[in-house]
């Protein structure tokens, strides 16, 4: 059956339309393009969704993590435990503040941080653990919070891919000491670039406010009580984000429906396993992630059929940028068997809201063809 093979199916396509265009145009017409009323409204709506009393914006998800780390007082000489399978920004944010990322292998079933392995990584320098809610699924936050309490360390949640995801009724990013989000173009809601940091502690919030705004609370003042930086966004981005936030329920519903269609279409393919959500948590698939026999060859096959496929994240321990990074003990594949296997087998399929049933049938058909 021909599913339209001349058409390229992209890996990502943000759902943008006239409402987003009009919202940005309204900001431009008003002449106030830096942080202003749209930013305040977007932050208020985010806090309501996330169930967080406090939150501040950052230019992107990586800088949101760095800002959160700084607000927790984490810096030179400190260590932060992070999963070996995650986007590189999780680790480089730690390096940016002068601390050292310590890699821990992931669980072989869901490829989230393996907290049982994390205990062996604790040293007197350990100051925090960074669980990453990977591909729109929650990691085991009950185990993570117990681990942190037992070792008296902070929890900084990387929830970049987890807008709309809840664990026992609480939103991802709202369980740890700080939670960090991304609004990059491939995220569930987007502002093009952008990030957000949540916290529950008033003192941490105060530090976040000063750190992101040149060490002051009033941007109109030229008196700077503390050292700070420019981590601000614009009202154009916030206006876009407000419209996207109003579409969140529809985006989530579409992604979950697409995921169900993939599961159904691939149910007879014994060579693949479709990753799902976590117990006691909701699931907003960031991609449709397969653990597939001969995953690299499957991706090449999909590309030959006009379907953009991606691997899962390469293990941090294998990244060339960390080989000579001061203090970073990269290790080798034998130390991280699950993260290594995930990279070899993991295949990410498109799951953006405007994907059609015909396109999903074409993608699934190509997978079936490869194993046939």
Features:
single chain, 372 residues, alpha/beta, seven-stranded mixed beta sheet, four-stranded antiparallel beta sheet, 37% helix, 14% strand, globular
Short structural description:
The chain has helices at 18-30, 37-50, 61-71, 89-96, 115-118, 141-151, 202-212, 235-246, 248-265, 295-304, 337-345, 357-371, and strands at 54-58, 79-83, 100-104, 126-129, 154-158, 166-167, 170-171, 178-182, 195-199, 272-274, 288-292, 310-311, 346-349.
Characterization of this structure:
The chain is α/β, with parallel strands linked by helices and 372 residues long. The chain contains 12 helices and 13 strands. A 7-stranded mixed β-sheet has the order 1-9-8-5-4-2-3, sandwiched between helices. The longest helix has 18 residues, at 248-265. The model has no long low-confidence stretch (mean pLDDT 96).
